[in-house]
Amino acid sequence: MQQPDPERGPERGPDPDRGRGPDLDPDLDPDLDPATEQPPPSRAEPAELAGRLRAVIQQLLPLLRGLSRHRDLTPSRTAALAALAAHGPLRVSELATRMNIALSTTSRMVDLLDNCGWIARRPDPADQRASLISLNDDGLALLRTVRRETTGLLSERIAQLAPDRQQLLYEALPALEELVAGEKPPTGPQPR
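The chain above was modelled as a monomer; its predicted structure follows.
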């Protein structure tokens, strides 16, 4: 049996820090991730960010829709009401372009919105053969109610996050807003 070295004290097994200089100690090197004790990646890859963001959005939207009391208001109908609130009055063709969906699909949706009593139609002063559609008071009230409800639901989920995660989410908002700020509706026919 090996005798303990009086200079070193009793044998304690392998030293986890042995062979690691102070530059690799997470307590001494603020650039190391304390969880992995590795340097953080130099920067996130756009493709990875895009994939993760898309996946989160695909999970988040159904969650918000599933908790809504307005079952007859589908995502596409909500998007149409929001587009009309932001950009209306519009021709059906302009709405189709903004939403990046086929004209025939948009026409059917506009008929549905009209039958629900959420939009108003009036002749286009520039071309009496065409109609302009816009939100009416009921459509605007519905859109505001849905936005208030989903904001409340999302607020509850955000409140469950740790404060540092809430701060990270807050700091990411300008970048997310920048992603959609320069969005222009596509022009011309869209491939299907």
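The chain is about 50% helix and 10% strand.
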